[in-house]
Each structure stands twice: as structure tokens, then as C-alpha cells.
């Protein structure tokens, strides 16, 4: 399976070391994707990395990916500019179960870069792609300046309930300070109506799930997106195994009720 | 129903040549580097006639047999997977011009291969890899193409190495899965022949070219005795165990003290994963030339025993040997059932023989069982 070439139409620096690429296909046969799915992005000669779609579902095959520079491949992607080409294989994985969120009190919980794979869900909600009775976004980040999509966050506040928390605040910060579980703990949940989508560092997801469970949200209504090393994204390279699951083809989104026994084993 | 015939041992080369004449490259056992490995076979003279292998934990020795058996050994360090899932292959090449990147897939005309001397455990291993690479959600085209033309000559085991435990994994020693030709080597006094039967149209096309004679009850009984000998060796040996509850056993024992104990000996060297006929993991290497305008992607075998294997931002998920050995063995014997509907182990014993510190998977299973004490926290 070889990558299809895409061209960078627009490049947005989110904050230093984190950037968003808007890509348009060089051919017509690109596949539609579902929120929560990911692509393997290829930087010429450097290699591939799995990156979630962070943009809206589109008809013209355009893609949006938000990337944080961590290693050699993401560093090569960071150096690319408008007009440069990126290789894309995908879409892979299952995506968020939007059909389950329909009619629910949707609670979206994102930590740091974890907001990127959840942004297509927010777009879908805002465009009434799914009807929910209530939508709340809990977003935790290190610092106010290290939040993704800052101008959009302002706009989203008009349409959904946004709760933000940062580890290190600055003077003008209006939100919470500390871990995102604190405001989550203080929130009221209609447990029977709640559906939660969670994405962030595993330790953050662990404590968020604990809080949701204490509030009575059933395991079957909590969904989380996992990250593991991936080379092929087609279930053949073996790298993303997590207990009996292949994160690439069985995930990356899992229902907590299905994977609870694996989530709590260290170094699995 | 397979009808069996007698092929005299002296005519074995006619079988090799008949398969070659059908357009197949014959792969089979050969003596190389003091071991019986798999490579191209041009004639029956290339086969390890008169040799056997003595195997134990961390030990493999070639020895002379006191007869002229062609297939009088168990299994060597190689498995057939090296011909189906290549240890190293180029996947694509890419070229960058001023404004464009062109990616070109590396395609090859897959060789028409015949495997000569496939054991029952190895047939099971190939079937297991088929479920990973062909029958799953995505298909691995390179594997699928190499696999689709494959001609298989299976050989029943009439003796087992000390490391063999296929009976415990329900994978042998008698060939039961589909092949093209299946045979049993019999040496009985002055007689030396193969009981041979075809299991496919292609197999029958080869068989009809050979100077075979109909088999008699006497021949069939002698062949059955040989297979029974291998069964008895394994059933009476120390490595026999009950595999029926392995998945549940290992799922209950992710925190067994046995993982700490084995981690004290395991070198994380990856030998077991390289020798295993079902281990399928791979990684990729991306490179450019010095001009920076030409890039390549290569795929090669990988092992869950390396630190890189589970690397994510911040470090490897499995940072220690304990978690890596646990991943390997639990995958092989337990999670494989949930992933692909069968065990990932066929009982060939290669991981035992080729472990440089002599870790024995069957002992580790026993150790986990013995250390399991249902506590109040269960």
C-alpha cells in the first residue's frame, strides 16, 4: 500500500512545535473518513507517523491534521510549507461512535493534543450532524498558550459548554488551574443520558474515567482513543498490539466497557 | 480420499524433478552452517540424507543417523515463513523533482515455489500466517501472491526432537491439513520407500509422472507405526502439557511472579521470535540517498523484544524484559485466540532450542500454573 500525494494548502502554527496542515489531494479518488480515524502521513525519506484527522468531514477529499513535533518524522513534517507535498495512507481505524452520542448528553474530554481527534466530533455537533441534548467540552492543557485551536475555542463557547483547565496559568487566565478532573468532578451528570468521548494522555484518561464512573456514568457509555506505535496501520506489523486488540484496526477508539481489563494492566 | 502409493527412496529425485518440470522452484531442507535449513533444492542429492538433529534447551547438534533417511530430522532454525513473508523487502521507492514526489510500488513477479518436506506443525504455522496476512480485514498482497501459487509436499514425522510438543498444541505429528502431496518415509529392514498420496489435482498430476506402485496394508501399517513413534516420544516426554485452558490461564496471570523470574534469565535477544514459524511482526525503514531526492521504504522482520517496538512519545510502553516476554508468550498462547481464532503456537519447539539461555516455553507455562494461587482479591 503506497501513499497518495497531497499538497499543503495552508499551514497554521498552533503554538511552537505544534502545527496544523490543511491538505488537498493530488488525485480524485480519496476516501471519506469518519471523526476519530487516522492517516499515516509520510514525510519524504523520513518515514510515516499515524496522525488523527482534526478537520471536518469533507466532500472534496481535503484533510486537516494537527501534529506535535516529537521525533524525526514529525520534525520533517514541521519543516514543510505551503505547496509542499505529504504522502497519505488511510483512512484507518474505527472512529468515534457518533450514532451512540445522538440524543445524549455528550461530554467531550480532551487533554492537550487530544483535542485534535475530537475536533471533527465538535464540528459534527455544531453543524447538527448529530443531535445531542447537551454538549460539554472539558479541555485541559499545560498553559493557556499551549491550547489548540484558540480562536475556535472562543467561538465554541457560544454553542457549547466549555470548561478549560491549565496546569500553569498566567494573570489574565479565566479558567481553572490544575488537572481537568477537578472541574469534571464538580460537574453534574445525568448518568443515564451521558456519553463521554475521552482523548489525552493515558494517565489523564484514567482519572477522567474514574471520575465519570464515580458519577454513575456506565462503562458502556465511555469511549476513549488509544495511542500505540504503528508501522502498517493494517494489522500486520504487530506493533500496536494492546492485549488482544490491534489499536490500528480494532481502535483507536474503544468502549471502556470492552477494554477495562486491558486498560488497567501496566506495560501491556 | 487420498489413495497412497509407494515411491522407492531411490526414485525420490524423480519427484524433485517432476515438481521442477511443472515450473516450480523447489525449496527444501539442506545442510548449511552445521544445521538443517531451508533453501533451494536442485535434486534429491541436496537433501540432508543420513543426518538428524539432536535438540534440547539452547542446544542444536547435527548427528549422523545409522540409516539413509532423507527426512530423519525434526525442524531446524529456519521456517518456511522466510519464503512467504520475506525477512527484508523493498516496499516502494520515491523520487522528488522540483515540485513533485512520485512514489512507485516495488512489484515483483512472485516465484512459483514448491516446499518439499513441510511438517504438520509447519502446515499449521502457514495456516496461522494465512489468517494474519490473507484472511484478515486487510490483505498483505506480497504474502498473498507468494502464497497463492505454493505447491506443498508434506512429510509426516516419524520421530520427534526432544523439544517437540506438537501433540500438546494439536498440530501434529500426522499431516491433516490440505497439501498437494503428503508422504511418510519408511525404512524397514532393507526396504526404504515413501508412502505417498496426492491431496490436490496438481499433486495428482505430479504423482502420475512417478514410477509409483500401489501401497499395501503392510506399507500403511509401517508408516502409521512411524507416526505413532513420534506421538509416543512426545507423549512420554517432559514437555507434554494440557493446552486447552491456556488462554484463560494466561489472562488470569498478567501479574504472575513467573514473569519476574523469566525476566531474570531472558536476554531480550529476539531469537525466539525470529525462529518462530508464526511470529509475523515487521517494521519499516525509510531512507534517502545523499542527494536527498531518492527515497526508499523497506519492510523487515521485527521483534516485540526490542525497545523500539513499543515506542511512543515519552518512551517504550514495554520498557522492561518482563513486559516483553509476557507480551510474546501471552500473544502466542492466549491473545492470538481472540485475534485470529486459534493459538499462535504449533509446538515446533524452535523457541526452546534457539533460546541462548535455554528458556523453555512449556516450563514457563507449568511455572505459571504452579504459582497460580487463587487469592481473596480474585
Which features characterize this protein?
heterodimer; A: 268 residues; alpha/beta; Elongation Factor Tu (Ef-tu), domain 3; Rossmann fold; 2 domains; seven-stranded mixed sheet; six-stranded antiparallel sheet; 8 helices; globular; B: 378 residues; alpha+beta; eight-stranded mixed sheet; four-stranded antiparallel sheet; 16 strands; 31% helix
Could you give the topology of this structure?
The complex is a heterodimer of chains A (268) and B (378).
Chain A: E1 4-15, E2 18-25, E3 38-43, E4 47-52, E5 63-68, H1 72-79, E6 85-92, H2 98-101, E7 105-111, H3 119-126, E8 134-141, H4 150-159, E9 161-166, E10 176-177, H5 181-186, E11 194-199, H6 202-214, E12 222-225, E13 241-242, E14 245-246, H7 247-250, E15 253-255, H8 256-263
Parallel strand pairs in A: 7-8, 7-11, 8-9, 9-10, 11-12
Antiparallel strand pairs in A: 1-2, 1-6, 2-5, 3-4, 3-6, 12-15, 13-14
Chain B: E1 4-8, H1 12-21, E2 25-32, E3 35-40, E4 51-56, E5 59-64, H2 81-84, E6 88-96, E7 101-105, E8 113-118, H3 120-133, H4 141-148, E9 151-155, E10 181-188, E11 191-198, H5 201-207, E12 213-214, H6 217-236, H7 246-252, H8 257-265, H9 271-275, E13 282-288, E14 294-301, E15 311-312, E16 315-316, H10 321-340, H11 350-353, H12 361-371
Parallel strand pairs in B: 2-8, 8-9, 9-10
Antiparallel strand pairs in B: 1-11, 1-12, 2-3, 4-5, 6-7, 6-14, 10-11, 13-14, 15-16
Could you walk me through the main structural features you see in this protein, from its secondary elements to its overall organization?
- The complex is a heterodimer of chains A (268) and B (378).
- By secondary structure, chain A is of the alpha/beta class.
- In chain A, 23% of the residues lie in helices and 32% in strands.
- Chain A contains eight helices and 15 strands.
- By secondary structure, chain B is of the alpha+beta class.
- Chain B folds into two domains: 4-236, no CATH class; 246-371, no CATH class.
- Chain B is built from twelve helices and 16 strands.
- Chain B has helices at residues 12-21, 81-84, 120-133, 141-148, 201-207, 217-236, 246-252, 257-265, 271-275, 321-340, 350-353, 361-371; strands at 4-8, 25-32, 35-40, 51-56, 59-64, 88-96, 101-105, 113-118, 151-155, 181-188, 191-198, 213-214, 282-288, 294-301, 311-312, 315-316.
- In chain B, the strands form four sheets. Chain B has an eight-stranded mixed β-sheet with strand order 3-2-8-9-10-11-1-12, sandwiched between helices. Chain B has a four-stranded antiparallel β-sheet with strand order 7-6-14-13, with no helix packed on it.
- In chain B, helix 8 (257-265) packs across helix 10 (321-340) and helix 8 packs antiparallel against helix 12.
- Chain B is globular, with a radius of gyration of 22 Å.
- The mean pLDDT of chain B is 96.
- The chains are: A alpha/beta (268), B alpha+beta (378).
- Chain A binds chain B through residues 2-3, 5, 44-48, 70-71, 83, 85, 87, 227-229, 231-232, 234-239, 241, 243-244, 246, 249, 261, 265-268, and chain B through 91-92, 94, 96, 99-101, 103-105, 132-133, 136-138, 140, 251, 254-255, 280-284, 286-288, 292, 295, 302, 304, 309-313, 317-320, 322-323, 327, 331, 334-335, 337-339.
Amino acid at each position: 500500500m503506497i501513499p497518495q500525494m497531497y499538497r499543503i494548502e495552508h499551514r497554521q502554527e498552533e503554538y511552537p512545535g505544534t502545527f496544523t496542515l490543511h491538505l488537498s489531494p493530488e488525485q480524485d479518488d480519496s476516501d471519506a473518513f469518519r471523526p476519530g480515524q487516522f492517516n499515516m502521513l509520510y514525510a519524504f525519506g523520513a518515514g510515516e507517523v499515524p496522525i488523527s484527522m482534526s478537520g471536518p468531514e469533507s466532500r472534496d477529499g481535503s484533510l486537516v491534521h494537527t501534529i506535535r513535533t516529537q521525533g524525526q518524522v514529525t520534525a520533517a513534517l514541521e519543516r514543510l510549507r505551503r505547496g509542499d507535498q505529504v504522502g497519505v495512507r488511510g483512512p484507518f481505524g474505527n472512529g468515534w461512535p457518533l450514532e451512540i452520542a445522538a440524543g445524549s448528553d455528550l461530554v467531550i474530554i480532551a487533554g492537550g493534543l487530544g483535542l485534535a481527534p475530537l475536533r471533527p466530533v465538535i464540528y459534527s455537533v455544531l453543524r447538527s450532524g448529530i443531535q445531542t441534548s447537551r454538549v460539554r467540552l472539558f479541555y485541559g492543557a499545560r498553559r493557556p498558550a499551549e491550547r489548540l485551536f484558540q480562536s475556535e475555542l472562543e467561538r465554541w463557547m457560544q454553542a457549547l459548554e466549555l470548561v478549560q483547565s491549565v496546569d500553569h496559568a498566567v494573570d489574565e487566565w479565566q479558567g481553572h488551574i490544575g488537572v481537568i478532573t477537578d472541574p469534571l468532578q464538580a460537574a453534574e451528570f445525568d448518568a443515564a443520558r451521558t456519553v463521554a468521548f475521552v482523548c489525552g494522555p493515558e494517565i489523564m484518561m484514567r482519572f477522567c474515567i474514574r471520575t465519570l464512573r464515580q458519577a454513575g456514568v456506565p462503562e458502556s457509555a465511555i469511549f476513549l482513543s488509544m495511542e500505540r506505535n504503528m508501522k502498517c496501520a493494517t494489522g500486520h506489523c504487530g506493533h500496536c498490539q494492546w492485549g488482544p486488540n490491534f489499536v490500528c484496526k480494532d481502535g483507536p477508539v474503544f468502549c471502556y466497557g470492552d477494554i477495562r481489563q486491558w486498560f488497567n494492566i501496566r506495560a501491556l | 480420499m487420498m489413495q497412497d502409493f509407494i515411491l522407492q527412496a531411490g526414485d525420490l529425485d524423480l519427484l524433485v524433478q517432476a515438481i521442477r518440470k511443472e515450473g516450480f522452484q523447489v525449496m527444501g531442507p539442506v545442510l548449511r552452517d552445521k544445521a538443517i535449513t531451508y533453501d533451494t533444492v536442485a535434486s534429491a542429492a541436496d537433501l540432508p540424507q543420513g543426518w538428524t538433529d539432536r535438540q534440547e534447551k539452547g542446544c542444536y547438534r547435527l548427528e549422523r543417523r545409522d540409516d539413509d533417511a532423507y527426512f530423519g530430522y525434526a525442524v531446524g532454525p529456519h521456517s518456511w515463513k522466510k519464503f512467504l513473508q520475506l525477512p527484508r523487502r523493498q516496499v516502494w521507492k520515491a523520487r522528488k523533482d522540483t515540485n513533485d514526489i512520485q512514489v512507485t510500488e516495488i512489484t515483483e513477479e512472485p516465484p512459483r515455489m514448491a516446499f518439499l518436506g513441510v511438517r504438520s506443525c509447519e502446515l499449521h504455522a502457514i495456516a496461522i500466517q494465512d489468517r494474519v496476512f490473507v484472511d484478515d480485514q486487510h490483505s498483505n498482497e506480497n504474502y498473498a501472491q507468494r502464497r497463492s501459487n505454493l505447491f506443498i509436499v508434506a512429510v509426516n514425522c516419524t520421530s520427534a526432537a526432544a523439544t517437540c510438543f506438537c501433540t500438546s498444541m494439536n498440530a501434529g505429528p500426522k499431516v491433516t491439513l490440505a497439501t498437494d502431496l503428503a508422504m511418510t518415509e519408511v525404512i524397514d529392514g532393507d526396504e526404504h520407500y515413501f508412502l505417498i498420496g496426492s491431496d490436490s489435482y496438481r499433486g495428482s498430476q505430479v504423482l502420475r509422472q512417478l514410477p509409483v506402485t500401489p501401497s499395501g496394508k503392510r506399507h500403511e501399517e509401517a508408516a502409521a507405526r512411524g507416526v505413532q513413534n513420534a506421538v509416543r516420544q512426545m507423549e512420554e516426554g517432559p514437555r507434554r502439557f494440557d493446552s486447552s485452558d491456556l488462554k484463560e490461564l494466561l489472562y488470569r496471570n498478567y501479574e504472575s511472579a513467573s514473569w519476574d523470574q523469566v525476566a531474570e534469565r531472558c536476554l531480550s535477544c529476539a531469537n525466539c521470535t525470529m525462529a518462530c514459524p508464526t511470529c509475523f511482526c515487521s517494521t519499516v525503514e525509510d531512507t534517502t540517498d545523499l542527494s536527498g531526492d531518492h527515497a526508499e521504504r523497506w519492510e523487515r522482520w521485527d521483534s516485540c523484544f526490542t525497545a523500539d517496538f513499543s515506542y511512543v512519545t515519552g518512551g517504550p510502553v514495554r520498557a522492561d524484559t518482563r513486559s516483553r516476554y509476557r507480551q510474546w508468550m501471552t500473544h502466542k498462547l492466549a491473545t492470538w485466540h481472540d485475534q485470529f481464532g486459534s493459538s499462535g503456537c504449533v509446538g515446533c519447539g524452535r523457541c526452546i532450542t534457539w533460546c541462548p539461555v535455554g528458556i523453555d516455553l512449556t516450563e514457563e507455562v507449568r511455572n505459571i500454573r504452579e504459582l497460580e494461587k487463587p487469592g481473596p482479591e480474585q
